[in-house]
Amino acid sequence: MERTELPAAAYERRVLVSAAQHYYLRVRLELPDGAARPGAPQLKQLVVAALRELHGEVGAALPVDVLAYEEKTLCAILRVISSGLVKLWSALTLQGFYQNRRCAFRVLQTSPFLLALAGNSRELALD
After folding, report:
1. Distance (Å, rounded) from C-alpha 26 to C-alpha 76?
2. Is the confidence at residue 81, as pLDDT, over 70?
3. Half-sphere exposure (Cβ direction) of 50: Cα atoms closer than 13 Å
4. Rg (CA), the chain
5. Which of 31, 50, 79, 80 can bridge 95 by disulfide, Cβ–Cβ 3.0-4.6 Å?
6. In sequence order, what DSSP letters do the residues of 25-86 get, joined into one string?
7. What pLDDT score does 60 carry?
8. Which tens digit of pLDDT belongs to each residue from 3-60?
9. What is the pLDDT of residues 86-110, one digit of tens each?
10. CA-CA distance, 63 to 94, in Å (whole number)?
11. Over the chain, what is the mean pLDDT?
């Protein structure tokens, strides 16, 4: 009995890398009651300070834009280049103080498409 070897199965591994130039994050700043609410320029400074604290001057040089900000709800939409998404997310997660008071950033949504942040299926009210 002779054994014949079957040819090895050929497969091709494909890894898809996002071609998106920017990522968008919807974030909410959580502050204790009675704390001063930052305006849009102060929020941008807080984001840059968080990047500088965790990643140094290289992190602070990361181009981050505040596209929209609601001072009433403390929600903002941030834009960052794709290569800086993880740096920004980690810096926001570890940010703990604003004007010597405890604070926390919550990343609510993230997407390479700005339009995807227009609605949230988790907040959808069905009739």
Report:
1. 6
2. yes
3. 24
4. 21
5. 50
6. EEEEEE--TTPPPP-HHHHHHHHHHHHHHHHHHHHHTS-EEEEEEETTTTEEEEEEEGGGHH
7. 92
8. 777 677 777 777 666 678 999 999 999 998 877 889 999 999 999 999 999 999 999 9
9. 999 999 999 999 888 999 999 999 9
10. 19
11. 88
Question: What pLDDT does 44 receive?
Answer: 96
Question: Is the Cβ–Cβ distance between 112 and 18 less than 8 Å?
Answer: yes
Structural contact between residues 80 and 62, judged by C-beta atoms closer than 8 angstroms = yes
In the block, which residue shows the tokens 């609605």?
Answer: 119
The partner residues of 102 in beta bridges, in order of sequence, read 97
Q: Dig out the tokens for 47 from the structure.
A: 């984001």
The encoded tokens of residue 48 equal: 């840059």
Q: What torsion, rounded to 10 degrees, do the Cα atoms 75, 99, 40, 23 define?
A: -60
> How long, in residues, is the chain?
127
Global confidence as pTM: 0.78
End-to-end CA distance of the chain: 72
CB 74 within 8 A of CB 31: yes
Of the CA atoms within 13 Å of residue 64, those in its CB half-sphere come to 31
